[in-house]
Write a structure and sequence with these properties.
The chain is mainly alpha-helical and about 325 residues long. The chain has 15 helices and no strands. Helix 1 packs antiparallel against helix 15, helix 7 crosses helix 9 and helix 12 packs antiparallel against helix 15.
């Protein structure tokens, strides 16, 4: 086990190096240039010269967009990374690591609660659909799942805002708390603050849950159907066990084994934020901040954010492999 972990860590470092090179080159080739955009009006007014802008770009290693210049800029960025420095964000004017730590909390809370609802809804639906294959229930669940998978997040979010916020007025349109409310540090105000935040997060949570349960439900249904056709399930039924015990004791345990592989994608989604959903609902989570940074061409933040997600993905993949070996004794970790 220890040798396997060391081997995977070494492989992960190589993967992260390759990912960082690709991301850096892609970011440097973006048409958006933050420094040029920032000083464009001053350049037109004559209060600053192009030489001054080029000097600032040179300071950040962004002046030369040739292959050699980008490669030099990458090694400068990588050198700072090895010293534990992700640089300062252009638009947020803070260290990138500080911005990520300060704003990923709300994204984590939203994603974690949405994940709980996602598993609590999709797994029972998938099992029920599999145990009633080709029935009206199976077709209904399948259609709803396909609708959820097919809906774009921005369209579904805008639809919910139009119906439940603009027309019915049941929920706020955007934000985390009501702008007109003032809260103190008293216990009662803290409760009111949490309730206000929960009221604002209902629609974003619905978007995240509805759009995510479809794929997991189909995945659970497929795995359950495979398990129900196994020999040991037929043996359990032949012994006279009740159908409920066959499904929820013998079949369910083995159905959950392939779901462990989903852990690799859960970790980055928990901390990475839902970029489109946060932008539509104006929630200042890490996803929305990354979206704004990408639009503005904030290279230090975009690099730091993407490497943050890459590290989480690698950790999630390793954890998923280890958990797969734990829940399924037949799986042996390679040496």
């Amino acid at each position: 086990m220890f040798k396997y972990i060391l081997k995977r860590i070494g492989l992960s470092i190589i993967i992260l190096f390759g990912v960082s090179v690709i991301i850096y080159f892609l970011v440097r080739l973006m048409p958006t240039d933050y420094l040029t955009t920032k000083f464009s009006s001053q350049l037109q007014q004559g209060t600053i010269k192009q030489e001054d802008i080029d000097r600032i770009k040179e300071l950040y290693g962004l002046a030369d967009n040739s292959f050699k210049g980008i490669l030099t800029g990458y090694f400068n960025w990588a050198g700072n990374l090895l010293r534990g420095e992700l640089g300062d964000s252009f638009i947020y004017e803070k260290p990138v690591a500080q911005v990520i730590v300060e704003n990923m909390g709300i994204s984590f809370i939203i994603a974690f609660i949405a994940m709980i609802f996602q598993f609590a809804i999709s797994i029972p639906l998938g099992i029920s659909s599999a145990t009633h294959q080709y029935s009206f229930r199976d077709y209904t669940v399948t259609v709803l799942a396909m609708v959820g998978i097919s809906l774009p997040s921005f369209f579904f979010a805008a639809l919910l805002i139009r119906v439940f916020a603009a027309e019915l007025g049941w929920f706020p349109v955007s934000g985390l708390v009501s702008a007109q409310e003032v809260y103190t540090n008293s216990f009662s105000d803290r409760i009111r603050y949490l309730l206000d935040m929960g009221h604002h997060l209902v629609l974003p949570m619905i978007v995240l849950v509805v759009l995510s349960i479809g794929s997991l439900m189909r995945y659970t249904r497929t795995n359950t159907l495979e398990v129900l056709n196994a020999d040991y399930i037929r043996t359990a039924r032949a012994k006279g066990l009740s159908e409920k015990k066959v499904i929820y004791v013998h079949a369910f345990r083995n159905t959950m084994i392939p779901l462990v592989t989903l852990l690799a994608g859960i970790l980055p989604s928990l901390f990475g934020g839902a970029m489109i959903t946060e932008e539509v609902f104006a929630i200042d989570g890490i996803g929305r901040l990354a979206y704004k940074a990408l639009q503005a061409g904030d290279i230090p933040f975009v690099m730091g954010y993407n490497m943050f997600l890459a590290v989480l993905t690698v950790i999630g993949t390793l954890f998923s492999d280890l958990m797969y070996a734990v829940v399924d004794p037949r799986v042996k970790l390679g040496k």
